[in-house]
Amino acid sequence: MTEKLEAVTLQLDASLGPEVRLAFADAGIEARFLERNNIGGDAATLIVMATLSVQALPHLLKFLGDRAERAGVRRAKIFELEFENPTEADLELIRQIARERMTGKAPERP
Amino acid sequence: MNAAVSPATVALFEEALRHQWGQGASISLYGSSNRTPMTFVLERVAARLDRPLVAFWAAGGAPDVFCLRDDEAVAAVFNQRHLELSAQLLQLFTVPLEGELLSELAERLCLRVTGEFALRDGDSDLAVLCYVKGRVGESIVVPDNRNVLDLELGPINERYMFLWFFAFVHEFGHGRAASAENRRAMEDLLPDEAISSALRDGLDGENLLPEHREAAEQVLATSQLFSPANLREECSADLFGCEVLLQSTMDILRELSADVVDPVAFAVEHVIFLNIMMLIERCRMISEMASPRSTAAAPDAVIRLAVHHVAIQFRGRVAQWYLQAALANLYPKLGETRLAEAISEAQSRLSHRASMIQQGYRAALRYALGAKAKAGDHPLLDSFRTDMAAPIASATRNETRAFCQTARAMGVKGSLLDVLEGILERPDRPFSLPLSGAHRFIVAWVNGPDGFSEPYTLLTPHGPVAPAFLPQNPLFADLCEALRASLYEGYELKRVVFVVPRPEALGEVMLEHCSADAGFGLVWEGQPGFVDFLTDQLEVAKRDSQA
């Protein structure tokens, strides 16, 4: 059976770069990391783009969950849902969709 | 340029850009098959980077300029809208205006740019209010030229090169700024303490209140945005931009017209475009601070903008120091001192203009920060409707249409955007604002002998109907004026405001204030057909009072 892959895009404070690279490497998730700078001199942000299996999602969600209260994660796009400054409630929604995907139940989109 | 980058990396950059931009922008890879001023500049950028570059062209969408980079390549976007807005703001530094007129023009342009950034953030009411405030009663119209070909037709000189490429090349400069070797060199040039001290000194010129000054120092000390490391990287990208533009301008002038760069003009254009870039960025910050989602208090916004101003000034001084040294080296016959004096004289001529522009910008800031409380600014929108009805307003109509189209292409929805589109379609017809927030209604109320107290009602085929308006709807004043003439002696008409939790509760509350046996139907603003109904009734009332 072909494993269903999900495209994930995150935008984080660049200062989280070393942590997110380590977390992805530990979880065996391949990702591309792009640094973004604005003309006005805003602090740089890091864009992380990955395609991963639903089974690998818990690792990513743990990383996000650990940082949800630290406001370092600015945007997250998972399952084609986009969250600005994702909160624990947003992550719970993603977990629920992931569980439904893993158990084969039809996902209920909000 | 793009050839050395793998197709997979180009695709990755493109995908990331689309994600960053959202709807409404068309993004394409900029090819190098034709020789253009852009490819000319990009060749000189590529020669100075340690990794290949990818250039994209974005049309439509928000006027954002940024770069993306990874270990393999660096990508920057040439944003057509940023160019168009820069060309508009350039007028502030070139039009033969001064004093209050210049401030007013600056206010209008800043409001319109703020409106575009608000669209990007989906804050459609703020976007519409800022846009309309920037247009209403306009006596000096600076065209918003969305035809980039017109801008291409300008003479290729120092100004052209800065207008088109300063922001773009600066972004590629981040590709060099991030290298370890460059970081070390910049740390030697601009140590932490020198930057912190210069920024603190810069705050002296901002005339902040003592308590704001303390908070500004706190922002300087804690915000990553104003950290020495971040500013060093921006300064490095600025120096890269100046270096590449100077070389490109020299080369392109030599090739096209055997002309040479005017060093004073080059240094002055740098100052102008740094100001333009700062204005655009500050408009972006204003839109974020004025957003209904923002929790920042107004003083915080003022402090942050003051610190941002100081940081940009610092960057400007570093780049000017570099440029003056580079230009003196290239033109030794001019003499370093004479060149510095000539540049300083030209810049001082700009400084008065810049302070009038700042005044206009501050007025734009005040309006935008207060727009949240205005909800629907009916008088402003109605004045704009009157403007739009004039035959002379065709250019403004076209530009407003373009604003609305941009909003829709971005997927923006909102009631004031609907109203603005309605005004464009039928500027001859009054409009009604949708209900939002607290429900305050004004009602024409009649008091008379023997305790008579009732709302004024219009006679309709369905019986007497009392109209209730949202505050500030000019139709209310028109109606009262028409009604006063028809009142019997001893009766007077008053303006009464009712505040209700929901519109449906209004009738019950009104009845509590009526004399016995009052009976009437009720229509309130916000219901479909309210304006049409009132407009028709107003005509009847006017006819009756004249009769």
Structural class of chain B: alpha+beta
Most residues in contact, chain pair and counts = A-B, 20 and 36 residues
Number of strands of chain B: 10
Number of strands of chain A: 5
Going across the major beta sheet of chain A, what is the strand order?
2-3-1-4-5
Low-confidence stretches of chain B: none
At the first level of CATH, the class of chain A is Alpha Beta
Low-confidence stretches of chain A: none
N/C terminus separation of chain A: 28 Å
CATH architecture of chain A: 2-Layer Sandwich
C-alpha termini separation of chain B? 80 Å
Helical fraction of chain B equals 55-70%
SSE class of chain A: alpha+beta
**Which band does the percent of strand residues of chain A land in?**
25-35%
What portion of residues of chain A is helical? Answer: 25-40%
Radius of gyration of chain B: 29 Å
Could you spell the SSE succession of chain A in H and E letters?
A: EHEEHEEH
Number of helices of chain A: 3
Report the C-alpha radius of gyration of chain A, rounded. Answer: 14 Å
